[in-house]
Design goal:
334 residues; alpha/beta; Rossmann fold; Dihydrodipicolinate Reductase, domain 2; 9-stranded mixed beta sheet; 6-stranded parallel beta sheet; 10 helices; 36% helix; globular
Length: 334
């Protein structure tokens, strides 16, 4: 199989999972790595026999690649993404995509003008249990969906990470994990029309939000609730719970299952969250979209919608009011 040549920009924590994904993939090859810490780039690149650079511009000048994965902090994403797109390189950009809707539109429009593939690197749409769960819902076995719950709750020291620097991150836990939550809700339930976000206190005294409850309403009138925290280790077994008129479905970290109201027993349909599997599926879907025209599971329109919802959520957080989600640009949607 023809391997697509990827470069990775940024060798922070998330890059380690990409490394495992590339090691397992038969169709994606990591050929170059760039990081402002040249020693980190060199150490990361060595197992792959890849080239390493201290700057992404130098990488572009010295290495021919088909696609780049951007895993740097979000305030750098627009500049790096548009730089590569203008060179005809396809771009898979980590979440959060950027700091504003305006930046998201600029990135998407640049991709359209240059004719390259571009989208946000979500991961949960690629988890096998999440994909199976969507099929179960589509079958109608749970009846009409009434409520949807999502939780990302863990105690993590963020005080020395870029996530707690507002100028770099654009926000705290709502920006970081909330971007996943929004994409998950939209994947299962469709468009989000209104959001309410409430901060529930400080646990690390950071300059950004640390613990947030978010509520969302969908275009179909379904209510979704989201629990986001960096300060409380709730040790919940499930990160998604879906309640229908005929039953309940749970997607867990170690097991996924559903139960119908007519039965006392749970039906197990998955082994839980497999991060490396999700990342492998993600980069291979992007590769296939470039090589074979396969449909992107996460489209640019999904990336833009996530930014739109998070921007509305921060307005809600600051004003303590429900906020309508305004779609800024129909032209940027695919």
């Amino acid at each position: 199989m023809n391997k697509l040549k990827f470069a990775l920009i940024g060798t922070g924590g998330i890059a380690q999972t990409y490394a495992q994904a590339f090691q397992q993939s038969d169709c994606c090859s990591l050929v170059a790595v760039a990081d402002i810490n040249e020693d980190s780039a060199k150490a990361f690149a060595e197992p792959f026999g890849a080239k390493s650079f201290g700057d992404y511009r130098t990488l572009a000048e010295n290495t021919a690649v088909d696609a780049v994965i951007i895993s740097t902090p979000p305030n750098t994403h627009p500049a790096i993404a548009t730089f590569f797109m203008r060179k005809g390189v396809n771009v898979l950009c980590e979440k959060p995509l950027c700091l504003s809707v305006a930046e998201a539109i600029t990135m998407i429009e640049c991709a359209e003008q240059t004719g390259v593939k571009f989208t946000m690197a979500t991961k949960f749409r690629y988890c096998e249990d999440v994909v199976k769960a969507k099929s179960i819902l589509a079958s109608g076995v749970l009846g009409d969906i009434v409520q949807f719950e999502n939780a990302f709750t863990a105690k993590v020291d963020m005080s020395r990470r870029w996530n707690s620097d507002l100028a770099v991150s654009g926000g705290g836990v709502l920006m970081d994990n909330g971007t996943h939550s929004v994409d998950i809700i939209r994947y299962f339930l469709g468009a989000i029309t209104e959001v309410l976000a409430v901060e529930t206190g400080k646990t690390q005294d950071l300059a950004v939000d640390e613990n947030v409850k978010m509520f969302a309403k969908t275009a179909d009138g379904i209510a979704a609730s989201v629990d986001l925290t960096w300060g409380i280790n709730k040790e919940l077994p499930n990160f998604i719970s879906i309640y229908g008129t005929n039953g309940t479905l749970q997607i867990g970290w170690r097991e996924s299952k559903y139960k119908l109201n007519s039965s006392p027993d749970w039906t197990i349909f998955g082994k839980g969250y497999d991060k490396v599997q999700a990342f492998k599926s993600k980069i291979e879907n992007f590769r296939n979209a470039i090589v074979t025209g396969e449909e992107l599971l996460t489209k640019p329109s999904d990336a833009l919608a996530s930014v739109e919802v998070i921007e509305a959520a921060y307005k809600s957080l600051n004003q303590n009011l429900w906020q309508k989600v305004v779609e800024k640009s129909e032209a940027a949607k695919n």
